[in-house]
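Before drawing any conclusions, I looked closely at one protein's amino acid sequence and its C-alpha cells, quoted below without any editing.
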Amino acid sequence: MTPDKERAGPDSGNREPEPAAAPLQAGAPAVGAARPPEVAGPIAPEEGASPSVELAPAGPDEAAPVAAAAAIAPPAEEPAAPEPPPTQEHPWVRRHHWIVRLTHWINAIVLVGMVASGLQIYGAYERFGIRGTKLPLPNPMDMHQAPKWMRLGGWLAGGLNWHFFLMWPLVLNGLLYLGYLLVAGEWRPLLFRPRDVRPAIEMQKYYLRLRKDHPAQGKHNALQKGAYTFIVLLGVLSVLSGLALWKPVQLSWLTAAFGGYELARYWHFVAVWLFVAFSLVHVTLVFVVDPASLRAMLTGWYRGRFPSHD
C-alpha cells in the first residue's frame, strides 16, 4: 500500500470527488464571511414596488383590525344644520255669532242711507242757528251743501221720508245687537276698561309706525275695545238727539237737555261725521292689519294671526 492511499483512508477509494465551489457573484458575501448587522428601521422598498402601510403591532388591549380601520377611516363630516320646523297653519275657529254678523251688515247698509238722507235735510239750511243768526260752533260745511251724489231724497220732504223710514230698522237692529251682547256675555271682551289705556297707547304707536312689533292681543285689541265702546255711546247720542229733533214738543225735556233745538241739531250733525270717520278707519284697518276678519264677519269662521279669545 502506497503512502498516498494510507493517508486517504480506507474509504477514500469509494468517495466521489467533491464538486467545485460555484464562482462568487458580484456583491454576494463570501462563504464564512460575517453578515452585516441589520439596520434598524423600515427597509426601503425596491424600485417599482408599491409601498406598504406599516402597522404598529397590536398591544394586549388593542386589536389589529381596529387599528387598521382607524388608519383608513375617512374624516368625519360636519353635522348638517337643523332644518327649521314646518310652518303650521292657524286653525279655523268660530268667532262671530250669526246675530252679530246680521246686525253688523244691516247696520252698515242702513247707516249709509241715514247719512245720505241727513245730508239732504241739512241742505235745506246749511248752518246752525235761528234764521239770521249763527251759533259760534265749528262747522266746515257752513253755507255749503254736500255733493248731489252723496244725498238721498232729492229735496227736503224726500230726505225726511227716507230718514224717518230708515231710523226704525236702525234702532231695532241696534237693540237686537245690544240685547245679544248682554244675554250672551259678549259685552265683556268689547268693553273698554281703565286697564286698557296703556295697551291702547301702545297699539296706537304701532299704527303710527312708532313701534315695530304688533302688541299681543286676543280677539280685540285695546284700541278696538275703545272704538267699539265709543261707537255704542255715539249711537245712543245719535238716537236721542234724533228723537229730540223729531218730537221737540212732545219730548221737550229731551230737547232742553241738549241745549235747545239748534244745539240738538248740531250734536246730531257731529255724530254723523264721527260715524263716517269711524267707518273709514275701521274698513282701512281691516284690509291693512287683519283681512281674515272680513271673512269671519261673512262666514263666522276665522283663521288668521290673532286668537279668538281675550
